[in-house]
Amino acid sequence: MPDPTSDSELLAAAQVALNVHGGVLRELGRLFGDHGHQLYLVGGSVRDALLGRLGTDLDFTTDARPDQMLPFLRGWGDALWDTGIDFGTLGVAKGGDRLEITTFRADSYDQVSRHPEVRYGDNLADDLVRRDFTVNAMAVRITPGGPTEFLDPLDGLAALRDQVLDTPSEPEVSFGDDPLRMLRAARFVSQLGFAVAPRVRRALQEMAPQLSRITAERVAAELDKLLLGADPVAGLNLMVETGLGDVVLPEIGAMRMAIDEHHQHKDVYQHSLTVLRQAMDLEGPEGPDLVLRWAALLHDIGKPATRRHEPDGGVSFHHHEVVGAKMTRKRMRELKYSKQMISDVSQLVYLHLRFHGYGDGRWTDSAVRRYVTDAGPLLGQLHKLVRADCTTRNKRRAARLQASYDDLERRIEELAAKEDLARVRPDIDGNEIMRILDIPPGPQVGQAWNHLKELRLDRGPLEYDEAVAELLKWWNEKGRPNV
């Protein structure tokens, strides 16, 4: 994003952004005013308005208690949800906007868990000082006439102008209250392109172990947001340099100890960050691809465990893709990712090296079919990952690798034009297998199906009579049970 140059330019950008939502802001200001309550736009909504990137999710704070808001919001909004009511938050949908309105808070923390003792506050100042960073501690007063007053008691505008993340109170207090804020710092570095203040960096280094207080699900959510940011490499570097990564993603920092086999990068860690950047460059108009970004980051995490110093002075990492896929599954399970997410990312890690056996294009059609079948719906992402993994500075070698992959994609297209590569199945289905062999449902049907699928991968589509003959041959030689 462009660097903001002055406070006046930032405030002008905010006015333009808020005007887009002028209708709903005036209505909501009138609604709260008619019921005798204050209302303020706060947090990330004010920050993003100043940066000219305000979306349709708007955050507000008010002196009204949830039970006071419920009656008049229920009649005004298109939809209302109260899943956060225990924390003083009500959600409202109105037109195309999604609003979250929270009662002033003056919570206290026990410095052991991240769960506060929820206490409602009675003024805006106390609410703002309990927020994570000063750039998120600004407010705009909303009245029946719309936005009227910009409030910045903690100099958030100056921090925004200088692109610095600092805490409203001492960072040790802020992070002790909620250690997740440390990971949010890395996430905002990725999303906003900001740097952390020196005292914040020192606190991150000293307090990183306290991240262990945070649930895996919360950590994973922050890591996803970090990876989907505009500059995830900056966020990852902050994590690794401060020790946050040692707590939540130790495999990443561990890659700094391994030298990649091409000797063209300082270490595997830097190589992996380059692959991540290059994978992002290959993303299409549909936007960021979280699976691809995770796979790009993790594709070489198996290298430290498989590093071998060879007699000729070289370094090898045999089967690092197999080890890396296992490590990926283990880490992502610990972070409580979905089975589908774990399967997709680990499969890409497992397959990312297979192309390097393609050589000068001597793969058989069977090998091409297996490549496509093993990738399945991930084939497009595998194409991008493999291309992104080419980070050599040798221009001739890079051109040769890209040309070789161009050739593989061409062969895939040619085979796909002749047969259904996207869904390779046996030429005879399970019901027909049972009819031909006169057997009931059971393991033997699956064994026969797998045998025919292997034939299909090796030889391509078979005529029906040929497939039946192969099935009977297998049955007579191996499939029929001993009597």
Automatic annotation (TrEMBL):
It comes from Mycolicibacterium austroafricanum. Its EC number is 2.7.7.72. Residues 398-425 form a coiled coil. One of its GO terms (molecular function) is CCA tRNA nucleotidyltransferase activity. SUPFAM superfamilies: Nucleotidyltransferase, Poly A polymerase C-terminal region-like. Pfam families: HD, PolyA_pol, PolyA_pol_RNAbd. This is CCA tRNA nucleotidyltransferase. Keywords: Coiled coil, Magnesium, Metal-binding, Nucleotide-binding, Nucleotidyltransferase, Transferase, tRNA processing. Its cofactor is Mg(2+). Residues 268-415 form the HD domain. InterPro entries: Bact_CCA-adding_enz_type3_sf, HD/PDEase_dom, HD_domain, HDIG_dom, NT_sf, PolA_pol_head_dom, PolyA_RNA-bd, tRNA_adenylyltransferase. The keyword Nucleotidyltransferase applies. The keyword Cell inner membrane does not apply. Signal peptide: none annotated.
